[in-house]
Backbone:
């Protein structure tokens, strides 16, 4: 997409605004499948927690993707978007047995990540194919909040608990169809990923009727010009060779599964916000925008970096600005960042806004959530309307007048 297209969309749909480029999602999907083209059976389960708009789910479905869901609500959204139950994996953490039973009743593949639920579910449903999430105790990821495979993580069954796990499977006569791991997000060192894969291969040898191995995802995308990223092509070359060798050793052609979220949609996303005020203090020039961490929390939550450009003045001389929001707390998107000269009313564009941005937004300060637009075939299509005051009130219930006053 070009800046002129984004400016036109901001004028048409208002700001703040999320925009997603369908062509970039398609190219990322094709890049991943091409990297693993030497694997006979490859399945991509899009991690829909990254961006769960139904139109995005439908776009990925048409590309051939399946889904990775982490809640019953995500499962229901996937079914609503046209996915069949066998195209959805349920990979929750810390949910109740009741929620797992509810998902099972829909015919969706269950992935279990703790011994207690595994034993309870196995005792009741010994013939239902189940996937087991292993914690490989491998530290990977760009921030402790997104590193999920280390020894202190709440995710998965410790690889050191394999003997206990195997006993449960044998005692319940469970049907283990696959095993799964996920080390974390923003993986740079593919050798760490390959090391964790060997742990998964070792664990797989304990189960004789597997249909698939799920290697998670967490591939890093570039956040700025010349930024480093996961070398998907090199990983594809090395892991495909090792996976095919393991399948030969195992005596069966298994399916290799990935569950990318950020990799598929992050770079496709743009967040557009209007500058409300330019404020000079004794040491800083603030550019205050018509948004805040209620719309884009990642920079405040775990220090993520989003390249920001002034698309209203793309050739302007760069100056140093701190870009801040309108939330009544510290609400900083960037500190002393070089950006083309900013004037009040300009539109700023935040790059890499496709993953974990809208999906983590809120109504904090009783602000409305923004609209979402999909740019496809050279046109912008509204795929979620900007919220209104009626949306804020939708599920609120006023007390009857008779009980509203304190005694």
Residues:
């Amino acid at each position: 997409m070009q800046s002129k297209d984004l400016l036109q969309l901001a004028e048409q749909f208002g700001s703040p605004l999320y925009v997603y480029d369908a062509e970039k999602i398609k190219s990322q999907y094709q890049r991943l499948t091409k990297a693993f083209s030497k694997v006979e059976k490859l399945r991509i389960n899009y991690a829909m927690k990254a961006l769960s708009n139904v139109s995005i789910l439908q776009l990925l479905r048409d590309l051939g993707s399946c889904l990775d869901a982490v809640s019953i609500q995500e499962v229901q959204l996937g079914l609503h978007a046209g996915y069949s139950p066998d195209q959805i994996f349920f990979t929750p953490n810390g949910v109740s047995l009741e929620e797992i039973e509810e998902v099972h009743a829909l015919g969706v593949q269950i992935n279990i990540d703790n011994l207690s639920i595994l034993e309870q579910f196995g005792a009741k449903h010994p013939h239902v194919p189940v996937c087991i999430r292993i914690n490989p105790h491998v530290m990977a990821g760009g921030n402790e909040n997104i590193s999920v495979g280390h020894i202190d993580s709440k995710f998965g069954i410790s690889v050191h608990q394999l003997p206990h796990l195997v006993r449960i499977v044998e005692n319940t006569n469970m049907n283990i169809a696959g095993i799964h791991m996920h080390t974390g997000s923003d993986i740079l060192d593919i050798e760490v990923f390959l090391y964790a894969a060997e742990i998964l291969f070792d664990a797989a040898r304990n189960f004789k009727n597997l249909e698939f191995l799920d290697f998670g995802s967490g591939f890093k995308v570039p956040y700025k010009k010349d930024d480093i990223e996961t070398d998907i092509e090199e990983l594809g070359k090395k892991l495909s060779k090792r996976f095919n060798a393991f399948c030969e050793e195992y005596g069966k052609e298994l399916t290799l599964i990935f569950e990318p979220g950020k990799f598929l949609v992050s770079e496709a996303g743009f967040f557009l916000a209007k500058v409300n005020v330019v404020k000079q203090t004794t040491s800083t020039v603030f550019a205050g925008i018509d948004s805040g961490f209620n719309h884009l929390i990642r920079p405040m939550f775990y220090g993520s970096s989003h390249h920001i450009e002034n698309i209203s003045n793309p050739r302007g001389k760069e100056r140093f600005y701190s870009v801040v929001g309108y939330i009544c707390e510290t609400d900083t998107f960037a500190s002393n960042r070089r950006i083309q000269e900013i004037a009040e009313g300009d539109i700023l564009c935040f790059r890499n806004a496709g993953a974990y941005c809208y999906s983590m937004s809120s109504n904090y300060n009783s602000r409305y959530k923004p609209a979402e637009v999909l740019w496809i075939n050279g046109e912008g299509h509204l795929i979620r309307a900007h919220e209104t005051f009626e949306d804020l009130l939708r599920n609120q219930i006023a007390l009857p007048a008779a009980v509203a006053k304190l005694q």
Remarks:
- The longest strand covers residues 269-280.
- The chain has two domains: 22-263, 269-386.
- The chain has 13 helices and 18 strands.
